[in-house]
Design a protein that fits this description.
By secondary structure, the protein is mainly α. About 45% of the residues lie in helices and about 0% in strands. The longest helix is centred in the first third of the chain and has 40 residues.
Length: about 120
């Protein structure tokens, strides 16, 4: 490491242990995620393989072929709504939001009384 280090030769051992320490931290951070991705891939391959087995597989029992989950479609077939402007929902409105909308509409639609003169 003499030609790649900016530290003096006496600190080579310290530098080596720092490198090992940070490599260990990197593996502790990335390792679980990599294992989960590999597990998910193997699970999907196994499920796809088991679908094709005669008599006991999914095709023999009339089930759908396994497929990867979709980010744009729910399992029910309805499209998902994505929003960055706040919470959006497509369910029934709660009574609080309905009342708020009515109050906002009431205040924007009110006209000043005709007998009041606003000129000074």
């Amino acid at each position: 490491m003499s030609w790649t280090s900016i530290l003096p030769a006496q600190l080579t051992v310290v530098e080596t242990w720092l490198i090992r320490f940070f490599l260990l931290l990197g593996m502790l951070t990335i390792g679980p995620w990599a294992l989960l991705i590999i597990y998910d891939l193997l699970l999907w391959i196994c499920r796809s393989f088991y679908y094709l087995i005669p008599y006991i597989g999914g095709r023999a029992r009339g089930k759908e072929r396994p497929r990867a989950p979709s980010l744009s479609e729910r399992p029910s077939g309805r499209a998902r709504t994505f929003s960055l402007g706040g919470t959006q929902f497509s369910g029934p409105e709660s009574s609080e939001t309905v009342g708020l909308k009515e109050r906002i509409l009431d205040t924007t639609l009110k006209q000043p009384p005709a007998d009041v003169d606003h000129r000074d």
